[in-house]
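Technical annex, item 7. During the second reporting period the consortium partners agreed on a shared format for inverse folding records so that results from different sites could be compared directly. Each record opens with the tokenized structure and is followed by the designed sequence. A conforming record, contributed by the partner at site C, is shown below for reference.
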């Protein structure tokens, strides 16, 4: 080999070595980045851990806080609000009633026809409208004028616009899904807003009065016969269909629960007397807090960036308003630690850009190549050409966040059952007779559930159901039924309007059995 040949061979060898070194270094770098991403995921998994032991601590904490909230005003982060609903509809209600439901992403108007004499609901119609974003932060007048204009259009359609129809007096149930200090079954004062609503001038105002004023302004003849939280509407419908229903839970944009409590346990209201001896209590469990809750740095940041820091802590870990944003925060951190999402950091920095329904769609993508994940990443976050292993990683993040939420909600439900002695922890054995027969202590208990997260997100629902059974144990679990109550919050409000419109019907006993 001549000098030239040798020189050429040498340069080729050097070039190959350089290329190889670059490739190796790239691979090492990308491995390092990937392992950082995997580290972020591991940390998330650990931070979100909901072992059975931890869930049982949450159950106990929920029951303890319920006691504290019933003992004194401000005694707990759980407000345990009185609802003045001491009788639940039982099937004797008759006539046509209306309901308005304000509280989440959509606003609903309903008309419900009741046959009486246990003929149950003859029919119902619903009109859904999205709440224009600007009205969520405008003035109470702006919001209520909008609501009543929709109500008027709904009523007009009923009689094809004839004046005689508009003249008719109508009774209305108003489902207002925010914390309200009730002053009667049909009136109450707004304590605070949640779920992104913020209309300062309404806080401290009587919610029914605001609605009634707007109704008067439009010249409609309608009376707010019942003002109820969505949980209470759901309980009313649940109980109407199944008398074993003792509690209701909403898991949608926000989350909350209510249940039937004995009046003598409501210590903060001494001397509270109802014919049934019971009253529905709106827990406002979205504000529940316990050191046993598995909280991550993402939750802490989400809370401090929110318009209501240190508030609604349980809700921020569970409900549909927030789950997508927790996932976005995890992806943002991964994107900062590596380049797995290309240059998407700025898109990922936009709060609430990843909505929970999209997150659920990615989580439930069962196509082998995760087509939906690719599509959503591209359309929503402008991230394209994401390798399969990264798409799988995203599905895993969704799974961790959703599983934690569902299991915590399950612990909340069992916490209620524990408080009212329906979880079997009083020793289900104590409910047995010597001969081994089951006594009435092991009673069927139904919890009505509403809200898109539970009704439309199957993996969430499966995780929740599974966790309730796991916490209760196999002996007790068959006695606890979780029942979806479709449109319960609205129809239930109409039912309550009916049962509070006719004094002749009288209170129905809903005392704890
Ligand atoms: C509200 C509750 C409501 C729940 C579900 C929460 O943000 O505070 O009153 O029941 O959302 O809609």
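Designed sequence (site C submission):
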């Amino acid at each position: 080999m001549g000098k030239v040949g040798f020189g050429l061979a040498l340069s080729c060898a050097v070039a190959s070595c350089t290329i190889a070194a670059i490739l190796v270094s790239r691979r090492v770098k990308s491995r390092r980045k990937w392992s950082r991403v995997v580290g972020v995921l591991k940390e998330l998994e650990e931070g979100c851990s909901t072992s059975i032991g931890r869930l049982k601590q949450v159950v106990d904490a929920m029951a303890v806080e319920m006691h504290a909230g019933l003992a004194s005003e401000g005694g707990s982060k759980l407000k345990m609000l009185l609802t003045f609903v001491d009788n639940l509809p039982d099937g004797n209600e008759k006539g046509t009633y209306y309901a308005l439901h304000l509280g989440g992403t959509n606003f609903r108007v309903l008309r419900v026809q009741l046959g009486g004499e246990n003929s149950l609901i003859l029919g119902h119609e619903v009109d859904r409208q999205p709440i224009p974003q600007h009205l969520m932060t405008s003035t109470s007048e702006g919001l209520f004028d909008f609501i009543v204009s929709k109500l008027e259009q709904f009523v007009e359609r009923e009689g094809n616009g004839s004046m005689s129809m508009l003249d008719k007096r109508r009774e209305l149930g108003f489902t207002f899904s925010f914390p309200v200090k009730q002053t009667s079954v049909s009136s109450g004062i707004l304590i605070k807003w949640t779920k992104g609503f913020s209309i300062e001038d309404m806080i401290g105002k009587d919610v029914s009065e605001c609605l009634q004023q707007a109704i008067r302004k439009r010249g409609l003849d309608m009376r707010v016969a019942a003002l109820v939280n969505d949980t209470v509407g759901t309980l009313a419908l649940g109980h109407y269909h199944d008398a074993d229903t003792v509690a209701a839970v909403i898991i949608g944009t926000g989350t909350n629960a209510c249940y039937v409590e004995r009046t003598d346990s409501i210590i903060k209201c001494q001397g509270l007397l109802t014919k049934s001896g019971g009253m529905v209590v709106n827990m406002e469990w979205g504000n529940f807090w316990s050191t046993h809750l598995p909280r991550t740095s993402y939750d802490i940041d989400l809370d401090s960036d929110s318009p209501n820091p240190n508030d609604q802590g349980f809700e921020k870990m569970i409900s549909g308003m927030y789950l997508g944003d927790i996932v976005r925060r995890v992806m943002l951190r991964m994107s900062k630690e590596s380049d797995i999402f290309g240059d998407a950091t700025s898109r990922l920095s936009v709060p609430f850009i990843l909505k929970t329904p999209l997150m659920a769609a990615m989580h439930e993508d069962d196509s082998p190549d995760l087509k939906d994940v690719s599509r959503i990443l591209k359309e929503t976050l402008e991230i394209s050409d994401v390798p399969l292993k990264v798409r799988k990683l995203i599905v895993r993040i969704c799974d961790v966040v959703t599983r934690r939420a569902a299991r915590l909600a399950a612990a909340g439900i069992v916490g209620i059952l524990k408080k009212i002695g329906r979880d079997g922890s009083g020793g289900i054995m104590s409910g047995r007779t010597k001969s081994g027969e089951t006594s009435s202590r092991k009673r069927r208990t139904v919890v009505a559930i509403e809200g898109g997260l539970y009704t439309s997100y199957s993996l969430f629902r499966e995780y929740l159901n599974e966790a309730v059974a796991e916490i209760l144990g196999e002996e007790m679990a068959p006695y606890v039924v979780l029942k979806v109550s479709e449109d319960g919050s609205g129809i239930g409000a109409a039912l309550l309007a009916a049962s509070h419109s006719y004094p002749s019907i009288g209170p129905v006993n809903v005392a704890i059995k």
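The pocket of beta-D-glucopyranose is lined by residues 103-104, 177-179, 194-195, 229-231, 250, 252, 254-256, 284, 286, 315 (CB under 6 Å). The two ends are 102 Å apart (CA to CA). All partners now use this format for quarterly exchanges.
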